[in-house]
Amino acid sequence: MERVQKIMAAAGIASRRNCEHYIEQGLVKVNGKIIKLGDKADATKDVITVEGTPLSLPDKIIIMLHKPTGYVTTVREDHDMKTVMDLVKVPQKVYPIGRLDKNTEGLLLLTNDGELANRLTHPRYEVKKEYYAVLDKPVSQQTLDKLRKGVDVEGRKVQFTSLSVLKNQVTLSIHEGRKHIVRKLFEKVGLQVKRLVRTKIAELELRDLPLGQWRELKAEDLRKLQTGR
Ligand code: URA
User: Fold this and answer.
1) How far is the CA of 1 from the centre of ligand 1 (A)?
2) Considering its fold, how many domains does the chain have in total?
3) pTM
4) What is the pLDDT of residue 217?
């Protein structure tokens, strides 16, 4: 449930402030009843009209979230854990594209566009993802050589597009979507991941999006997602 002025603004009616004026003037109805300021609705179920015209939400949206640790990547609500859905409040029914572990931070995409979600997660087109990891110990030359050769995790080698190391800090790019893959990879060479941040998907970067905040992708961002394979 969202405040109706927020849903109206997302549908491009006017600014949120001006949408509040519409509500105050009694021009907005939910399921046929005039509402008052502060009332909430579910844009996926309720019929919202403004001066008799039903709202239509922009169909497809894609969002980037700077996920903090402590949030689970799921749309399920049947547990006590905080989920990424608690951070992204949009009227459309979006869901995460792929996943990040509860204790991983960084770039997570959410959408209601199934085709796009499929394209970004399907193993055949698996896009490149960049991670920054802080490990419990510095990476020795011997370990670095092992990593560069490709480490076998559960029967399949993890190959890097790039790998750079500074003592116990590593930046790596992989085309993998397997669960816990980065943590498992370092475990295989005797290192433990203390902090993990996804910094980039294809050519789309987190940049200065504050922790816990989200924004809708712009055309330029979408280009970065689609060309950066
Ligand atoms: N690899 C991991 O181990 N965890 C993540 O959250 C993402 C990639």
Assistant:
1) 31
2) 3
3) 0.80
4) 92
Distance from the alpha carbon of residue 159 to the mean position of ligand 1, in angstroms: 15
Residues 76 and 137 in one domain: no
**CA–CA separation, 13 vs 121, rounded Å?**
34
**In a shared domain, residues 137 and 196:** yes
| Same domain, yes or no: 85 and 117 | yes
Q: Ligand 1 centre and the CA of 182: distance in Å?
A: 5
Does 229 have pLDDT greater than 50?
Answer: no
Range of the domain at 113: 62-123+204-227
Catalytic status, residue 46: no
Q: Is 182 in the pocket of ligand 1 (CB under 6 A)?
A: yes
In 103-213, beta strands by DSSP E: 104-111, 129-135, 151-153, 156-158, 160-166, 169-174, 193-201, 204-205
| Residues 65-89 pLDDT 10s | 999 999 999 888 777 889 999 999 8
